[in-house]
């Protein structure tokens, strides 16, 4: 591989460039194997919540929506089943504009009443423009695929859940939060991530002659935070076959490890009651509600 004009390594969140947004989708396709598929869980919840409370509009807020995988999945499921989403409003909330730009490219959502892709954070749900300062209430709120572990600072889960309590519709509204089993170990010493074999390169479909190459550099557990450092290279093959690195991403993931009952207790302190826990092979979906 040529090192001519190699770009400077940049600190990256894993989600913060047009290349990485595409890489995320390709990575999910490869790794969202049968046991990881979660859209059916959210689909069942949507129908259940809507049948118990057909408010209009029925607002669905997907926190950390990324490239919109879950909302696109729900829209597609509704099409297949001729389920009416014309009074449903989807809001995809996400800090990375690159992920949102990619989410908005998918145009198979004409049958959804309203779709908004909005930049923001889980720590300020009242500030989500479509929620009008908390005046518009959310019927279904989710944060998928264990990503609440991005809140690795000690006070962040409390901040997030108190924001949830401000925007959720009391009584019939539901919050579904996924926690990955591997981030809720029985014992912290079981939390270390096993070093993984570096995966094969993934070919881009959106960018000509581009491949993505990921190398795991280090993993360690410090207190209740799991650290996982990876390098993601974006490599272009030039005419003639020379490979050049066009983007060099250094990603320091920090993932919160959950103590037993921590999420449920934190939610309770924010006024949220546990309604259900749904377990799949890879994650647990905690369902909360606010008293009417
Ligand atoms: C693993 S991805 C999940 C994306 C999508 N929900 C899915 O299931 O494919 C985690 C997402 O959470 C977002 N995220 C990280 N910190 C966040 C925060 N404080 N508030 C909201 N979203 C956040 C990331 O930018 C990323 O897009």
UniProtKB/TrEMBL annotation:
<dbReference type="InterPro" id="IPR029063">
    <property type="entry name" value="SAM-dependent_MTases_sf"/>
</dbReference>
<protein>
    <recommendedName>
        <fullName>Methyltransferase domain-containing protein</fullName>
    </recommendedName>
</protein>
<feature type="domain" description="Methyltransferase">
    <location>
        <begin position="60"/>
        <end position="171"/>
    </location>
</feature>
<dbReference type="InterPro" id="IPR041698">
    <property type="entry name" value="Methyltransf_25"/>
</dbReference>
<dbReference type="Pfam" id="PF13649">
    <property type="entry name" value="Methyltransf_25"/>
</dbReference>
């Amino acid at each position: 591989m040529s090192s001519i004009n190699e770009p400077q390594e940049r600190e990256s969140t894993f989600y913060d460039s047009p290349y990485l947004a595409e890489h995320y989708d390709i990575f999910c396709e490869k790794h969202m194997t049968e046991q990881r598929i979660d859209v059916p869980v959210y689909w069942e919840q949507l129908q259940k919540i809507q049948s118990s409370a057909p408010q209009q509009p029925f607002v669905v807020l997907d926190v950390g929506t990324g490239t919109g995988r879950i909302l696109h999945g729900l829209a597609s499921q509704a099409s297949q089943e001729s389920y009416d989403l014309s009074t449903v409003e989807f809001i995809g909330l996400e800090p990375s504009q690159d992920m949102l730009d990619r989410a908005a490219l998918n145009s198979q959502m004409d049958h959804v009443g309203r779709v908004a892709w909005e930049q923001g954070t889980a720590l300020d749900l009242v500030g989500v423009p479509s929620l009008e300062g908390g005046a518009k209430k959310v019927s279904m709120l989710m944060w998928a695929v264990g990503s609440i572990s991005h809140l690795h600072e000690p006070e962040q889960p409390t901040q997030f859940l108190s924001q949830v309590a401000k925007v959720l519709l009391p009584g019939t509204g539901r919050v579904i939060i996924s926690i990955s089993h591997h981030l809720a170990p029985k014992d912290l010493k079981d939390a270390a991530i096993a070093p993984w074999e570096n995966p094969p390169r993934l070919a881009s479909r959106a960018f000509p002659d581009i491949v993505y190459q990921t190398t795991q550099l280090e993993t360690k557990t410090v207190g209740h935070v799991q650290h996982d450092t990876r390098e993601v290279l974006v490599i272009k093959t030039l005419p003639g076959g020379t490979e050049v690195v066009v983007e060099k991403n250094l990603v320091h993931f920090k993932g919160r490890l959950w103590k037993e009952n921590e999420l449920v207790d934190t939610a309770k302190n924010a006024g949220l009651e546990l309604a259900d826990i749904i377990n799949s092979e890879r994650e647990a979906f905690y369902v909360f509600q606010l008293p009417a």
